[in-house]
Every structure is written in structure tokens, then in C-alpha cells.
Amino acid sequence: MYSLNVPVPGRVARLASDLFPYLAPFDRVRDRHTLVCKRFETSDPDHLRERLRQTLNGTPAFEAQITGIDFFERPPRGSAPVVYLSVESPGLEALHRRLVDEFGAIDGLEGDEYVPHVTLARGGEVADARAVASREIDPVEWTVSQLDLYDGKFRESVTSISLPA
After folding, report:
1. Least C-beta-crowded within 10 Å: which of 27, 66, 70, 163?
2. What's the burial of 142, exposed, middle or buried (CB within 10 Å: 0-12/13-18/19+)?
3. What does the DSSP assignment read for 96-118?
4. Which value, to the nearest 10 degrees, does the dihedral of the CA atoms of residues 64, 65, 71, 75 take?
């Protein structure tokens, strides 16, 4: 599976690092922090890359903001709960809708179910997730000026697309 990701700035990684002691009760704590814009079920990255470049043509840079901590009690996939940093970005949501219109949605994860977020940890007790989500954080704002096409099999970026595209 491939995904189009928004690279997060170092300030978001530092925030996640600061929260690490509160994530110890969870089964898995993320050490790489990304923000997924859209997932793609394809085995042809070259064709996907070209379609993305065409679809993203004219897409401007946009603003994003980490606004708090929340959790999915019952995520559509994988172990629960999932603790994450909440992201607000009308530009990201508009881009996600445009990509869903072009490529289709993955059931349960995209379209109306899409929740922009940066995963911190998963697996464990809901009470622990609730405790982490109750913590106050300072917002982190940034301008999204690049998108990365990520290969989930090899866990690496295969190309970057600068915005405006």
C-alpha cells in the first residue's frame, strides 16, 4: 500500500517526544510521525506518481495545526485504542476530498471517515488513552509545502511533490 503523506515539522516530533513518558502503557509507540492525506491500493508506483502529479497540478501550499490530543477507541484497523495528535487543516481536508474523488476511498478510513491526525501510540487500555488525551498541549502551526509518496512495504518515501504543484 502507498500513501500520500504530509511531512510534519520537527516541532511536532519534539512534542511527540515530550509525550513519550505518558505513552509507556501502550503496546506500540510510534517513533516516526506522519500525517496521512490519502492511501492508495496499487502495485504500480510509477503510474500512481504520474496520476498524482496531474491531479495535484495547481495545488497551493496550505496551513495545518496540531490542536490537541485525542484517541480512537475502536479504530477501523489494527489494535485499539489509538492515541493521536489532532490536526486541523481545511486545506488538507479539501485535498483529501479531491484525491478521494479522483482515486476512490478506502472504506472505513477515508471520505467521510477521514480524521487528520498524527498517531502517537496504539494498543492498551482506554483509560490510559483517556488520560493522555486529557493533557494540554501548545498548538503547533506550519505551512504544508511538500507531500511525500510513501511505500508502506519498504517503509520509505519514493518521491516528494512540492506545493504549489
Report:
1. 27
2. middle
3. HHHHHHHH---TTTSGGG---EE
4. 0
Report the Cα 154 to chain-centroid distance in Å. Answer: 18
**Extended strands (E) in the chain:** 2-7, 28-29, 34-40, 62-72, 82-88, 117-122, 140-144, 146-151, 156-162
Cα separation of 144 and 8, whole Å? 8
**30/79 Cα distance (integer angstroms):** 13
Nearest to 65 by CA among 130, 121, 15: 15
- What region does 150 belong to: left with phi over 0, alpha with psi -120 to 50, or beta? beta
- This prediction has a pTM of 0.95
Grid cell for residue 35: 500525517
For 148, residues 6+ apart whose C-beta sits below 8 A from its C-beta are: 4, 5, 6, 7, 34, 157, 159, 160, 161
